[in-house]
């Protein structure tokens, strides 16, 4: 009897001790299917334990000893890392906060802001210091929005007006010395990335790239029109945006097009090439073999590719009533809708033949993205949010669909918005996956995104830094944006 009593006492003591040692945590997502893009694994029946903004454990459901302040039933649901949009424009004052809320409501927990500065203070564009203030407020939980992971400069080009201001001179270099001075001047402002435009003088670009290389400053954006992808990859360009240059370089038309621009810029008495002929010219002379040196240069030089297929979709769909009558327009200010409508109207003036050419060019963009991915180029999902018909937050899901159309698997498309951006940022240890120690930026879905990529839109909850927003809270954000839009439209309509 004594032994039995002792055994029972020890068991009771162990039970009490286990309960006493249960770790107190902020949140547990219970019995969920975890899709960890970083390890390319899918694990059913897991508890994801979150405390102080980070994941502290991912264990078999019920296996851990945790006392949670809050729990979420994840049974039948799917957990993915928070999505990152690697090409957005949120620094436009009237749409800044609305854009950030729309992104959060759509599961976007981090962005690379590709225009985070102003040429002159007091314009519609926010300056770098103001964007840093927003970034700090978001991190502190004082503003709703995704993490502003990268803040680039305003776009650098060579379109310097007469009597240019100091800011305009800084952002519009015209020769090699100017290009070096631009890097030096912008470096003092401390952006994370210098963004370049396709409208740069070749000498200014060469000088800028040389100075950036010496200073270890990242450069990304558009390729100046007289250079090829292989050219700029060899110069050290960090990221290439938009699916227009790779198709161009995969055609015999492209070489002549770029050469004609270079000769014109160098002073030859020849006309500029006709850009309207580019889509058909690229399609008619496209040759996969011509892609090889450019894709190989991207791989060899560790150039990241952000194709933003959405921007090419608008080129050929601008005249379609179903495309223009998008219900998501209700989340935008009248002035933005009017600006988009003007752009759509201009683009829709293309003839039926030109529209067909533009659609073919769009499809070549998908084809070449698939080729680049297959060869080992690191693809990142980006949307160009706030460009015409590119809706903040919503459109990232559309772009993921285009990446699958390009040949990526659903897992690889998810990686393009999670683990690959984390690698680009040098933050794979804390972002882009679902494992112990990672920042708790997560999206809970009602349907399996590996079965169909469009299931990324079935958002049940978004967790950012451990802060949970359930479906009701996300719908509340969308309603806040609509109410804000109505108020601002009314105010502007009264001449305010």
**Rounded radius of gyration (Å):** 25 Å
Structural domain count:
2
Number of helices: 19
Tell me the total number of β-strands.
16
Q: What is the name of the CATH superfamily of the largest domain?
A: Metal-dependent hydrolases
User: How can the largest sheet be summarized?
Assistant: 8 strands, mixed
- Decide which structural class fits the backbone: alpha/beta
Low-confidence stretches: 1-19
Instruction: Give me the CATH architecture of the largest domain, please.
Output: Alpha-Beta Barrel
Protein name: Amidohydrolase family protein
Pfam families: Amidohydro_1 (PF01979)
Keywords: Signal
Organism: Qipengyuania polymorpha
Question: Which structural traits does this protein have?
Answer:
TIM Barrel, eight-stranded mixed sheet, disordered N terminus, Urease, subunit C, domain 1, single chain, 496 residues, alpha/beta
Structural features, described:
This protein is α/β, with parallel strands linked by helices and 496 residues long. It has two domains: 130 residues, Urease, subunit C, domain 1 (Roll), CATH 2.30.40; 341 residues, TIM Barrel (Alpha-Beta Barrel), CATH 3.20.20. The protein has 19 helices and 16 strands. The strands form three sheets. Strands 1, 2, 3, 4, 5, 14, 15 and 16 form an eight-stranded mixed beta sheet that branches. Helix 12 packs antiparallel against helix 15 and helix 16 packs across helix 17. The chain is globular, with a radius of gyration of 25 Å. It starts with a helix and ends with a helix.
């Amino acid at each position: 009897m004594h032994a039995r009593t002792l055994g029972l006492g020890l068991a009771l003591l162990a039970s009490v001790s286990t309960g006493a040692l249960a770790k107190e945590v902020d949140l547990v997502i219970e019995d969920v299917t975890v899709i960890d893009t970083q390890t390319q694994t899918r694990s059913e029946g897991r508890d994801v334990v979150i405390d102080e903004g980070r994941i502290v454990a991912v264990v078999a459901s019920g296996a851990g000893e945790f006392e949670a302040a809050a729990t979420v039933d994840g049974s039948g649901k799917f957990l993915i890392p928070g999505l990152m949009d690697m090409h957005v424009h949120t620094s436009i004052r009237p749409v800044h906060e609305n854009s950030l809320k729309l992104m959060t409501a759509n599961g976007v927990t981090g962005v690379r802001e590709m225009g985070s500065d102003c040429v002159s203070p007091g314009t519609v564009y926010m300056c770098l210091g103001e964007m840093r203030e927003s970034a700090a407020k978001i991190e502190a939980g004082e503003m709703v929005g995704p993490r502003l992971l990268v803040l680039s400069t305003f776009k650098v080009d060579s379109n310097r007006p007469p009597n240019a201001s100091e800011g305009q001179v800084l952002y519009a270099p015209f020769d090699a010395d100017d290009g070096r001075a631009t890097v030096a001047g912008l470096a003092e402002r401390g952006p994370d990335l210098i963004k370049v435009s396709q409208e740069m003088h070749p000498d200014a670009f060469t000088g800028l790239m040389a100075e950036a290389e010496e200073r270890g400053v990242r450069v990304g954006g558009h390729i100046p029109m007289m250079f090829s992808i292989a050219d700029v990859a060899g110069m050290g360009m960090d990221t290439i945006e938009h699916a227009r240059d790779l198709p161009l370089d995969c055609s015999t038309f492209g070489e002549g097009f770029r050469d004609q621009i270079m000769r014109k810029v160098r002073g030859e008495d020849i006309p500029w090439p006709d850009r309207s002929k580019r889509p058909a010219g690229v399609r008619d002379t496209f040759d996969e073999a011509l892609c090889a040196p450019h894709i190989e240069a991207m791989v060899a030089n560790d150039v990241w590719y952000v194709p933003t297929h959405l921007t090419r979709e608008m080129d050929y769909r601008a005249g379609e009533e179903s495309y223009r009558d998008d219900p998501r327009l209700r989340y935008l200010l009248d002035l933005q809708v009017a600006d988009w409508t003007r752009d759509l109207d201009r683009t829709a003036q293309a003839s039926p033949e030109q529209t067909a050419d533009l659609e073919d060019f769009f499809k070549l963009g998908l084809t070449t993205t698939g080729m680049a991915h297959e060869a080992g180029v690191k693809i990142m999902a980006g949307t160009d949010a706030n460009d015409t018909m590119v809706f903040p937050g919503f459109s990232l899901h559309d772009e993921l669909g285009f990446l699958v159309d390009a040949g990526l698997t659903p897992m690889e498309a998810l990686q393009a918005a999670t683990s690959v951006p984390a690698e680009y940022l040098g933050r794979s240890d804390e972002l882009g996956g679902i494992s112990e120690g990672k920042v708790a930026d997560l999206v809970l879905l009602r349907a399996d995104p590996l079965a169909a990529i469009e299931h990324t839109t079935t958002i049940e909850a978004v967790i950012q830094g451990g802060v949970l927003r359930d479906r009701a809270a996300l719908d509340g954000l969308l309603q806040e944006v609509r109410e804000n839009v109505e108020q601002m439209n009314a105010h502007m309509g009264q001449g305010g």
